[in-house]
Amino acid sequence: MDWLLDDSQGWENLTDGAPTGSEGGGTAPSPKLRKSVLPWAIPLGVSGFGLLLLGIFSSIFPAEYMVASTVIAGNQEPADRIYRGLAGFLKCNNLEWLFRLCLVIAIGSLLAGLWQKGVMKRFEDAVDHKLDELGEKNRDASA
What we know:
Blueprint: H1 31-60, E1 64-67, E2 81-84, H2 85-92, H3 96-115, H4 117-142
Antiparallel strand pairs: 1-2
Helix pairs in contact: 1-2, 1-3
């Protein structure tokens, strides 16, 4: 067991075959790339968390919202519309605006992230690779 604690063996230089940042293909993302993700990732995360909280609160505090026409004495008509679940919770607590705001920010942030050059490039490369695979399969099937 003492050989594990021996500093003269040079444990720092061993990599177990894992590529390091200096080897080809395994470079770590630059700080500039990480900073370019923040403008869309933070609003996406915050709005997603807001939607999650609204969903959790709607299940913890169930509500029912009924929209009915005017009731005439002696005439028992059912309600025109009944909202239950998330929709009922949002209508009873007047939080529809917050739900819409979180949804718009989440969709906008997601679209902004997809429009980034790096993400779109990776997506296009993946689609091209998949199309090449399908073309090879079709060629092999026809031969």
